[in-house]
Amino acid sequence: MTNPIIATEDPAKDIGKILKKIRFDRELTLDNVSMLTGVSKTMLGQIERGVSVPTISVLWKIAKGLQISLSSLLNEPTQQYQAVQILTDIQPVCDEDNKMLLYNIFPFNPLSGFEYFYIILKPGASHHSDAHRSATEEYVIVTEGTLTLQVEEQTFTLQAPAKINFRANVAHSYTNQTDKPVIFQNIMKY
Q1: What are the start and end residues of each CATH 1.10.260.40 domain in the chain?
Q2: In CATH, which superfamily holds the domain spanning 86-189?
Q3: How far apart are CA 131 and CA 167, in angstroms?
Q4: pLDDT tens digits along 63-77
Q5: What is the mean pLDDT of the chain?
Q6: Alpha-carbon distances of 139 from 5, 84, 136, 181, 184, rounded to whole Å
Q7: Tens digit of pLDDT for each residue in 76-95?
Q8: 11-74 has CATH 3.90.1170.30 classification
Q9: pLDDT above 50 for 20
């Protein structure tokens, strides 16, 4: 039996340092990054200084605007052959009202071309995602509850166990319209 690594630190702790490094490596100003991402210069500065912890929506905007994976902002280490308890060993990233918990299970790896998330939507939770890069596909597997997924003008009701995949180059949203949690896995293939 292996001993899992217990996550004791918030994965958002280093986002500012990582963002600043990416910005400096690309020789971008805060104004440049703001224009690329749609996130205000003030907010970006606060994130870089560690004064503000970005929400999932803000992280997606930054990742999309800089054309990087969400995982690259979270700086999650990848290790082979390690058993990990998702809900106790991995610290989730939450939305602004803590109704959406996103666990970065398998961070982006350029060799595999994907990243894998375990997501819990509490009752009443809703998350809107802007269009991703044109070549991105999402694979969603609902394992508990009923997820309402809207892709452009189409609405899908996915009652567990259910799955769907779609090109993520369009706006889409995930909603829990029930009084019980929804649990789903999301694979982002780049």
Answers
A1: 11-74
A2: Jelly Rolls (2.60.120.10)
A3: 9
A4: 888 888 777 787 655
A5: 85
A6: 28, 22, 10, 20, 10
A7: 554 556 777 888 888 888 88
A8: no
A9: yes
The whole-angstrom separation of Cα 93 and Cα 113 is 22
User: Which pairs from 45-48 meet CB under 8 Å and 24+ separation?
Assistant: 47/15, 47/16, 47/19, 48/16, 48/17, 48/19, 48/20, 48/23
Dihedral angle over CA of 15, 7, 119, 109, nearest 10: 60
Block residue for tokens 């998702």: 86
d(CA 10, CA 60): 18
Dihedral angle of Cα 31, 32, 34, 35, to the nearest 10 degrees: 120
**Cross-strand partners of 157:** 148
Q: What gap in Å lies between CA 36 and CA 56, rounded to an integer?
A: 17
Identity (one letter) of the amino acid at 25?
D
- pLDDT digits 0-9 by tens, 117-163: 999 999 999 999 888 766 789 999 999 999 999 999 999 999 999 99
